[in-house]
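Below sits our specimen:

——
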Amino acid sequence: MTPDAADTGLLQLVDAAMAYGQGRYQHLVVPANVSVESELSAACYLWLTAFCSKERARDFLQDAATYAHQLNVLLPVACRDLGVMRLPEHLVGTLNRLRKLRNDVVHRGKLKDPLDRTTSAELLAAALFALHYIAMFRSELEAQSGVAG
């Protein structure tokens, strides 16, 4: 992974935090979601390459196991495989809500209902926690496999 790719999640989260700080809550949705999606995809890719070629792992993640499947199916399976704690269900629920809001913004151009400060803070905090969790997951994966991402 290139340094730019490794920084994508953090840079997107900074963009989301800036939007939050400016009170532009709708504008935090896409970068907050992208921050988690990009890092989770990279972690799933690294985990999958223990079972198949890099090309098959890439194709699987692009064509079949999209972000929702990575979050709700692949990550729990990978956690069980590695013997690490799963991402708490309430956090997965908040990330799924963020994902659905992201879809609203991208496909409709706006949210159905405006976000308030409290909800926006919860979404942003979930993304931040998820990034830290994914970093822990990757560290454990790298330690167990002896492969650095």
